[in-house]
Amino acid sequence: MKRLKASFTSKSALTLVLVGAVASYLDAALIVSLGIALPIWKEMFALNTWEIGSISTLLTLMIALGSFTGGWLSDRFGRIKVFNIDIFFVAIGVLIIAVAPNFQILLVGIAISGLCSGADLPTSLAVISERMSITDYGKAITITQQFWIFGIIFSQLLGSVTAGLSNLSPTVIFLVLSSVAFINWCIRVFSSSIKAAEKVLTQDKKEGEANVPRKSVLHELLRNPQVAFAVLTLTLFYLFWNLPANTWGSFINYFLVSSAHQSQLTATLVAAIANILGFFVNMWYIKKSDSAYRYQFMAVGISGALIAFILAAIFSSIWYVFATMYFVYSISTVFCGETLYKIWSQMLYPTDMRASFTGFSYGIVRLLTAVFALITPTLMDFSPSLLMWILSTCVLGYGVCAWFTLKLIRRFNILDPTLKVKNEVSK
Asked: How far apart are the first and last CA of the chain?
């Protein structure tokens, strides 16, 4: 921990990163926990495939709505203020999920927690990045991604441990998640060390960056082609990456239990082992994320994900091959996925509108992902192979967008220490 802290330009940076990164943990843990609970809720509430799909769809829709509104609200009324309010209502919403006695109350809890989780993520990223040196972006964002992966792992391990509790398993999982959100809220609001870190980091940034006049998202998109190209490219990149990531994150348990006829314990263990591997790879990647190797690893990640989905499509009827490919994907996505999107969004979006643009991108992507999630269970029951071929196409899509993003960075002379591209005023 001391070595990691010393690697940041400011000693206060790591403290704020760790607190803000809990938003990434909650985002991932909420999605995966719902995925773990789906086969249990299916029996518990006698749900059909469309109702199962509607659970994931509602969560994703509310995350999308939260992303749209949360980013704008934080730029308009203050990022720290919105940052603290969001997490409190995440705790409330997840608590409702934990104790829901029927399908209708369950949907209420999902709506509240999804809305506030969606609002918290772009806000937390903006809070972190606006207080960081650009040379620390890779480390800071990769740490938030480490929390995101840990949210997956811990939820899956908790699902494995509670698999024998039958209908009580979701209750335990979501009570733990609610407790984490509430504790994080207490730290954000009452910790003097966090307030001191925020003050130091804010003073370290240039005063001019904090006093730029606010503009509307639409105005900036129409006025600034550089920003418009960046928003379009990164939104497409995140969309093509998020479709397969959300599908496997939300429905791996459902597939192994309902389609492949494996036990709940087997399903949660498969997912947990895959993401533990990804966690340790990501831990190693923290030191490489700000190095000249960032984009070489990106190419490896895209290739690995493409191979994983193609083989999963060919051997979709053999569950252990399908599971092995999930292992491969979980490792490959460390190098080309959420981490890169977050790093690029902090580099390419204007500082004063960073939360708004991040929220706009997140909202669009989560909205479209929600539509896809609605049909995923039915599509999976019809043909797992077809679903995997669709996701293979998505990997090709985010590979093309990644390549185009690098072109944008060079074209607009965006400061990227790993490419040694510097901003220069043309003479």
From this structure: 45
